[in-house]
Specification:
12 strands; globular
Length: about 325
């Protein structure tokens, strides 16, 4: 039987203050009570504020973190689900939040306006890590083994019929088979669809590349179902850890020329907090080493497709991995 939800009364006070300060809003302020195996409490007495972005994966990572750190003995204020990237980021910069899961590509492009494409995940993490520590007093811990980046997918029947496993395989197909579904934002990005086609030698608006009639622009959510049906496109833009990839049995094509920037999931902690509670390195590292693309697809799918509550999914997963009891 699941433990009762912990309602953090003190979080309401903190939330009120944050609302006035930076517009941060908590998704629920609740997570499941738990303890570490053997009842260990390495964070006994620590006071921590965990925040997250508002999309499913961000909230899930926040709930996993809040549950696990509280199980380790910390008094955790749960401010997961901040709208957009700016609220959670600004809260951490202001010192109003201590722990936030981020993405290396987001740090590089969105926060620091860098345009250089660094395809090696470790190099990109190191570059972001160094800038953030020097300029903002934020420690980007070693990244988890999942990468929530752009990719192209195909239905399993289409991938088998066309014998494609990579984007180079797509480029080698006859022009009529090079059909794509993308959303408007990805179509127009400077690091999006048109530069990607150029990288793979099949330029847009070229009769020998990808004619405009081969591209259908639609809402991002519809791309997944259209790709699964194979109508009106053989290949659709997806996110690698989206739950619909697994649910719809899509094949993720290898970006073999390394066009897309890595978006490795990384726990970010304020340096002053990490100095005060160095145990966070080990605890957050334990979470990170368990996370993979396939796992995030599964957890995201439980929320987005099955309708489960992120706090429940976080608790169940931590318990299944024997990280809590």
């Amino acid at each position: 039987m699941k433990s009762p939800l912990v309602t953090l009364v003190s979080a309401l006070v903190a939330t009120t203050a944050l609302l006035a300060g930076c517009g941060l809003v908590s998704s629920s302020g609740t997570f499941h009570d738990a303890r570490l195996p053997g009842g260990e409490r390495p964070l006994d007495g620590a006071k921590l504020v965990v925040t997250s972005k508002s999309f499913t994966e961000g909230v899930l990572l926040g709930k996993i973190t809040a549950t696990y750190l509280a199980a380790a003995g910390a008094h955790v204020t749960d401010l997961t689900g901040a709208p957009g990237s700016a609220s959670s980021r600004q809260a951490q910069l202001n010192g109003d939040a201590d722990v936030l899961w981020e993405y290396t590509g987001t740090g590089w492009v969105n926060y620091h306006n860098e345009t250089e494409t660094i395809s090696d995940p470790k190099e990109l993490w190191q570059r972001v890590h160094d800038i953030e520590k020097r300029d903002h007093g934020l420690e980007w811990l070693p990244p988890a083994n999942f990468n929530d980046t752009y990719a192209f997918g195909a239905s399993t029947p289409n991938a088998e019929r066309l014998q494609v496993k990579s984007l180079s395989d797509v480029a080698a197909l006859p022009v009529p088979d090079r059909t794509f579904c993308v959303d408007d934002e990805f179509f127009s990005r400077s690091d999006g669809f048109i530069p990607m086609l150029q990288k793979y030698g099949i330029p847009y608006n070229d009769p020998n590349g990808v004619p405009p009639g081969n591209v259908t622009r639609m809402d991002a959510g519809i791309v997944y179902t259209a790709t699964a049906k194979g109508v009106p496109c053989n290949f659709g833009m997806i996110y690698t850890t989206d739950g619909r990839v697994k649910n719809l049995n899509l094949v993720v094509l290898d970006d073999d020329k390394k066009f897309f920037l890595p978006y490795s999931g990384t726990a970010v902690v304020r340096c002053v907090v990490l100095d005060r509670y160095p145990q966070l390195r080990t605890l957050l590292g334990t979470i990170s080493e368990h996370l993979t693309d396939e796992l995030m697809q599964d957890l995201n799918g439980r929320v987005d497709i099955d309708g489960e509550d992120p706090a429940d999914v976080a608790y169940d997963w931590l318990k299944s991995e024997k990280l809590i009891e």
